[in-house]
Each structure stands twice: as structure tokens, then as C-alpha cells.
Amino acid sequence: MLAALANIFRITELRQKVLFTLAMFIVFRAGTHIPVPGVNASVIEQLFRSGNLFGLLDMFSGGALSKFSIFAMSITPYINASIILQLLKVVVPTLEQWSKEGEEGFKKTTKLTRMLTVALAFVQACGMAYGLKMAINNPGIFSILLIAITLTAGTVFLMWIGEQITARGVGNGISLIIFAGIVSRLPDGLKVIFQYLQAGTVSLLNVILFAAIALAMVVFVIIISEGIRKIPVQYAKRVVGKKAYGGHTSYIPLKVNQAGVIPIIFASSVLMFPVTIAQFVDVPWVKAMGKLFQWGSPLQTTLYVLMILFFTYFYTAVSLNIGDLSDNIKKNGGFIPGLRPGNPTTEYLDKVMSRITLAGAIFLSLIALMPHVIGWVTRIEGVYFGGTALLIVVGVALQTMKQIESMVLMRHYHGFMK
């Protein structure tokens, strides 16, 4: 491993990219400690200790939400804007056309994403400031507006940092910011486990069991995330002039988990809504509804799994157009052995994708429920491990390592890992 790390820093360009990325991480972590003006942070920290819902949201912001810092909303509005635009491609022809225009279309989509991010961030910041007005020193319209503008500016600045990492650093900047926020909570989790050991709440055997389950989950996530179904494609030989083209065999890699982490985000966002409303609305039936949908309740868990299954199929259908895939194979003179081009190929690909998507949906459901299982088996509460966080950390780490590997291979035959 030391030789592999040394291999990175021998390349000047890669060394500069890695150091720039680390510098942006330092800026991000420093910003999580800059408080929003006019807010009593101790009141908000007490509120976030009272429920798993807020603790989960705080983890994705790297602790910035419980401190109510300028980065309290993290990069969430940007992610929401990107997902909304991706879903709108199905119903808005202009967005679909932009996706086919190459670099120029990408610039138009990026500009629209930024504008939508600012709008969503401001609306979310206003709602957050109003909902947490009990923590504002001088509650009023001016104070709420000031807090909303500050939080929006923090999100926009994070968006800029993410774009700078993508352009001048290593990996996808937005993903790495989320990655850094999640990983930064690891020391707090280890501290909680150590406190449990000191207090005698859990035994050393519980901690070893927790570590074994965590390691098994990481391996499981890596296997499924890298899992693909290879569909063989045979390309017919074409003669153009005096040269022959084609005549080779390739394959289409269909991912088992095509939807990624999006279904869990969608499902959790929908189910968090009634619980979030119940936190701020003092009406008996609303409070009863919040208890009914409380995180970990039988109803919430059942709906959580069903929604993950639904959103997995939904987002897979949106992100992967089987019809276009079949048409591209036909246009390039290819065919799947034993199948005619056209409708038979489309039906076959759709059938295969439906089957492996079911496996991916079950995988996502298991990963989403693992935090509850780990807490029940090991009796270690308050340490969130699994679900969205684990998928993001593993996925971002794999993609970043692949990018570094490809950059090293351009200059060293053995690459980053032998």
C-alpha cells in the first residue's frame, strides 16, 4: 500500500489534483464550524439529539446541521435539482435533446441545474429557518430572511467547491463532498462505542460482532455494486471500399443495481415528511400520525421496503431506455445471438433487466434495514451504519479509485494496485 501511495505522488499532475482535493476538504470541514448568525446552536443540538431522523440528516451534512452552520443544508438542494431534471427528461423534449448535444448540451443542463439549485435551496432554507424559529435569538421576518440567505449562500459555495474538485481535483466533486461529510462522523461513532464499553452497556463481544457485520456489509455492497449481467452482442462484418469493419463479439453490461442509491433517498424522503411535520405542528392528530410513521415502526418499515422496490424499478426505467439501447444495437449492425434485431431484442433485454432489477431492489431493501438489524443484534444504538451512507461511501470510493488507477496506468504499467 505504501508503494501504491508513493506511486501517486511521483506523478506531478496527479499529486497536484490529490492535494487540491484535500485542500477543498479542509475548506468544507472549516465551514461546518462557522455558525449562522442570530441562532442559538445549543437549542438545535438538543433537538437533534432527540430523534434518529435528525441524526440521520446531520450525518450527511458532516455535523453541520446540528451546529446550524453555513453548510447546514449541505449539497442536498443540488442533488434534488439534478434528480428532478433527470426525471423531467422523460416528459420535457428539450431536456432530452440537450442530453444528446454533447458538450454544448451539458453546459445548458449545468446552468439550469445551478439555477434550480438556488431556488430549491432558498425555499428549503426559509422552511428550515421558520421551522427552527424557537432557536432564533430575535425571531422575525428579517432574521428568518437573513438565515435563509446565509444557508443558501453556503449551499451555493459548496456547489462551487464540488465543481472545482471535478474540474481540478480527483473524482466527482459533489459525491466527494457527501463522502467527506459521512466519513467525518466516523470518529463520533467510535467515541459512542467506546463510551458504551466504559459504561458497561455493551460487551467486547458486541463490539466484535458489530465490526464483523460492518465488514461483511461493505464486502456485500462492493460485490453487488460491481455486479453486472453481460449480454453478448455479435456485430456483422461490413465491407467499405477495400476495408472490412465489424465481425467481432462484444457485450452489454447491465448493472444489477442500476438505480444506485436514489430509491433509498426517494423512499426515506417521502416517509420523513409526516415525521418532520409532526415535529413542528402541535396538533393531536398530526402528532399521532408522526408516531405512526416513526422511524423503525412496523408500518414505516413495511412502507419503506415497498417504496424502495417501487422506486428501484421506476428510476431504472427512467435512467435506462431499453428501446434506445435496442435501436443502437440494430443501427450498429449488431444482434444478440439467437434473437432477431428489433422487438425480440427489446423484449429480451426488458425481461433480463426486470429480473436483475428485482435482485437490486432486494439488495437495497436489505441494506436500508441493516441499521435496525445491527442495533437489535449488537445492542449498540446511536451509531448509524448502513443504508444510504454505506452505499455512498463505498460507491464514491470505488469510482475515485478507478479514476486514480486510470490516471496512473497512463504513466506506469503496473498502475495503482498490482
From TrEMBL:
The keyword Transport applies. InterPro entries: SecY, SecY/SEC61-alpha, SecY_CS, SecY_dom_sf. GO terms for biological process: intracellular protein transmembrane transport; protein targeting; protein transport by the Sec complex. One of its GO terms (cellular component) is plasma membrane. The keyword Protein transport applies. The chain crosses the membrane at residues 112-130, 142-162, 169-187, 207-228, 260-281, 301-322, 356-377, 383-401. It is a multi-pass membrane protein. It is found in: Cell membrane; Membrane. PROSITE patterns: SECY_1 (PS00755), SECY_2 (PS00756). It comes from the Bacteria. Keywords: Cell membrane, Membrane, Protein transport, Translocation, Transmembrane, Transmembrane helix, Transport. Its main location: membrane. Belongs to the SecY/SEC61-alpha family. The central subunit of the protein translocation channel SecYEG. Consists of two halves formed by TMs 1-5 and 6-10. These two domains form a lateral gate at the front which open onto the bilayer between TMs 2 and 7, and are clamped together by SecE at the back. The channel is closed by both a pore ring composed of hydrophobic SecY resides and a short helix (helix 2A) on the extracellular side of the membrane which forms a plug. The plug probably moves laterally to allow the channel to open. The ring and the pore may move independently. Component of the Sec protein translocase complex. Heterotrimer consisting of SecY, SecE and SecG subunits. The heterotrimers can form oligomers, although 1 heterotrimer is thought to be able to translocate proteins. Interacts with the ribosome. Interacts with SecDF, and other proteins may be involved. Interacts with SecA. This is Protein translocase subunit SecY.
